[in-house]
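Ketoreductase domain-containing protein: structure tokens wanted.
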Amino acid sequence: MDVDHHESLSGQVALVTGANRGIGAEITKQLIELDATVYAAARTPEDVETSRSRTVRLDVTDEATIRTAIETISEERGRLDILINNAGVYGETGKLGTLPTDDIDTTLRTNLHGPMILTRHALTLLAEQSGARIVNVSSGSGQFSGGGIDAGHLPYGVSKAGLNAFTNSLASQYPGLLVNAVCPGWVRTEMGGSGAPRSVEKGAETPVWLARFRSGNPSGRLWRDKRLIEW
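Answer:
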């Protein structure tokens, strides 16, 4: 698809969750290479390896840390142009009757509730920037099309389907923002495992591409490999 991009992100501020490893760490690296000021967020910020980022403690299941992180960005930079909701967990596998309640709660709170609450707090800064971008790192496991929601990993699939729905609804509520979801594919990370076919560089490629969107580009959509895919 032909889209209009920012060639440089100089002067722009980004917040990336789950930035201490995997896709989040690579997204952080690539955004820094585009000259963005990046706040790399993690539950344990001392684990963030990208020295050129600003680290903040942020646990998406803990609203107090969310509030503090946004306040820090507001005080230090006074703006937020890009939010990458990347932090996520896979949870346990099996039929619903075998899954611990705690695991279901953790998966939904991390993958769906957390991004919603973080975005709600971040809107105080995002809404002030025309064409600010929100990129929700989702999954094909949450697609209704094709084979449907991943039944083998029910809480994970449901959480990503919810994240997709959140993306579409938020784009309708805030037409001045560019809100998109992305399936990065099966990536060699702690979650994806060593047998996954994709590198973290490839997994981060489309999220960063979406983070470079200019006003007027598509919003409220789901992407994979820089192509629109069905919900």
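The chain has one domain: 13-229. The chain is about 35% helix and 15% strand.

Cheers.
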